[in-house]
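TASK: fixed-backbone design
INPUT:
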């Protein structure tokens, strides 16, 4: 049976996804410190879409990020780009003030253990390359 598709709803979803991708790409270009050519100067001075300006302001103020349902990029992706491009929140996320020190330490420790566990199950980089990319030994050191 062929499923009936609401073309208007589909178009709205596609438009929203393109907007999210556009904002994520513009973020990389706009907040970089490069100013060595007219291109980079233009990127730094360009007017931002309101949706991206909101994300940057929210993060710059409190470190908050959000993910719109079905958005391609995760919260971690947004945080990594913003921090990596030099946007440092002026204050910590307010949820940190809602937790006692022992609760916050436990929460952060659980994240650390999860990351350690995940990393511990991953192959070494060279082993991954050999397995999935057909890289022969010898030229690349482990």
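OUTPUT:
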């Amino acid at each position: 049976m062929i499923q009936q598709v609401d073309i208007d709803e589909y178009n709205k979803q596609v438009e929203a996804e393109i907007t999210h991708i556009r904002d994520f790409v513009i973020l990389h270009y706009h907040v970089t410190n490069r100013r060595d050519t007219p291109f980079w100067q233009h990127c730094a001075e360009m007017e931002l879409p309101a949706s991206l300006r909101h994300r940057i302001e929210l993060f710059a103020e409190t470190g908050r990020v959000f993910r719109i349902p079905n958005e391609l990029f995760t919260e971690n992706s947004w945080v990594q780009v913003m921090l990596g491009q030099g946007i440092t929140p002026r204050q910590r996320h307010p949820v940190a003030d809602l937790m006692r020190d022992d609760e916050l330490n436990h929460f952060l420790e659980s994240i650390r253990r999860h990351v350690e566990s995940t990393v511990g199950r991953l192959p070494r980089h060279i082993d991954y390359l050999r397995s999935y990319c057909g890289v022969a030994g010898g030229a690349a050191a482990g």
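COMMENT: The mean pLDDT is 89.
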